[in-house]
Input
Amino acid sequence: MATLRTIRRRIGSVKSTQQITKAMKMVAAARLRKAQDRMLKARPYSKSLDDTLGHVAAKVDSSLHPLLNVREPKRIGFVVVTGDRGLCGSFNANIIRRATNEMKQTQQNGVEFELIAVGKKGFEHFNRRRYPILEKYINFFDKLDFKHAQDIAALIQDQYVSEKLDRIYLVFNEFKSAIQQNIIVQQLLPIVPRPPQDEKFATEFLFEPSPLKILDNLCSRYLNIEIWHALLESLAAEMGARMAAMSTATDNAKELIIQLTLYYNKVRQANITRELMDIVGGAEALKK
Output
């Protein structure tokens, strides 16, 4: 049976942990509010740009632009977006597991692949297992900026145009709520424009300047925005997962403190009872 001093130390240790997890929950909640606000502001522009690209691409020959050209995939790239830190439940593990399954499926189909790791946790996992990593982008989510999305977009655009990669997928966590994330596997390149299903006012387009220049501008901007949107979604999802994980940890610490306190009282009562029995036994022995 543990001593009272050991149990008191354990209770103190759990209380200290509880204070840390509670503080981390509050920090994550504040960062979630900010990340969610940025994400919601980016969504309308991303949707409008997607619709515009779909309108234009539906009216011209897709072979006019290299980012729209579809070719037989011989080498596939995966842009996997994870977090830079842990303590966010299964957030990183889920995205790594899904990306691993996608890459294994690619290998089974006889196609080579390369990985672009966005986030420290994903990079460390795949690097330890010697996956072919083309590039890494780590330790930037604390100061996330549109420039980071532009850098990633420039890399994958160069890899695709130079035909080093024939297809590129983006794997990330989409934010649904503070306790729910949805894993998305999205084809980035070649760009697959989605023409509008029903146009209220169908019309012919007159292009000025040329369709190629318009597509060049739209496609580059589309890549930047899609990656930026994915980074914002992933950051908000990570903060939500961390807040939920720290909330659960705080509740578990509270339950453990209650159990340890009951155990402490039980041991203390047993010690008192044993001491009383020793006193009574000693008194009886003196009477004899």
